[in-house]
Amino acid sequence: MHTNEPLYSDFQKLFRLHHHTLCMHAYKYLADSDESQDAVQEVFVKFWEIKKEMVNDKNALYYLITAVRNNCISRLRKKVHTISMEDEVVSNQITDTPAEEDKKENTDIQALVDEALALLPPKCGAIFRMSRIDKLTYQQIANELGISIKTVENQMGKAIGIMREFARTHYIPFSILFSLIFFIGHRGIPNFYV
Asked: Could you give the C-alpha distances from 87 to 81, 92, 106, in angstroms and in order?
C-alpha cells in the first residue's frame, strides 16, 4: 500500500497515458520491443523513486522523454563497450594507433555535443532533439506532445539561441555544431526507426 494514494493514482494515470509513446520513442534507439519496454519501465520506476513530486507537473512528459532517451543511450553505450572489450580480448596483441586517435576524437566530439545539449532545459531539449535529430516537423512534434505549433517554434527559437551562444563561446561555427548534433544523433549513437 502506498502512503500517498492520490499521488500514486496520478502516477498510474501518467504511466497509462504516456507508456506506449515512450516505448515507441525508445524503440527508435534500441530497435528491440522488449528492451524498449524495459528501458521505459526503468525510467518510470526511477521517476517514482526520485521525482514523484513532478507527477502533476506540466513538464513531466518532457522529463520522461529526456530520461528515456538518456537511458537508451546508456544501454547502447554499454553494448558498444561490451563489444569493444570482446574485440580487445580477441586482438590483444594488435596495436593500431590511428584507430585509437579516431576513437579519442570521436569521444571528444561526443562530449562536445553532450555538453551543448545538456544546456537545454528539459522541455526545450526534448523539442530540439525531436526536430533536429528525429527530423520531425513542427506539426508532428506539436501533435506528439499535445502542444501548439507556436510553443514548438518558441522552444526551438530558445534552443537555437542557446546553441548559437555555445558555438560562439567554444569557437565553433554554428553550422558545424548543428551538423555534429545531427551526425551524432544518427551515426555516432545508433538511432533506429520503427
From this structure: 10, 8, 18
Listed in sequence order, the residues at least 6 apart from 20 whose beta carbon sits closer than 8 Å to its beta carbon are none
Q: How far apart are CA 120 and CA 159, in angstroms?
A: 6
By the 8 A CB rule, do 109 and 176 touch? no
CB 20 within 8 A of CB 66: no
- pTM given for the model: 0.50
Q: Which residue has the cell 569557437?
A: 171
What are the tens digits of pLDDT across the range 76-105? 777 766 655 555 554 454 444 444 444 444
CA dist 48 and 182 (Å) reads: 32
CA–CA distance from 41 to each of 27, 48, 84, 85 (Å)?
13, 11, 27, 28
pLDDT band at 160 (very low <50, low <70, confident <90, very high): confident
Residue 9 and residue 48: Cα distance in Å, rounded? 12
Model confidence band, residue 158 (pLDDT cutoffs 50, 70, 90): very high
DSSP structural state of residue 147: -
In which residue are the cell numbers 528491440 written? 32
Residue position matching grid coordinates 522541455: 123
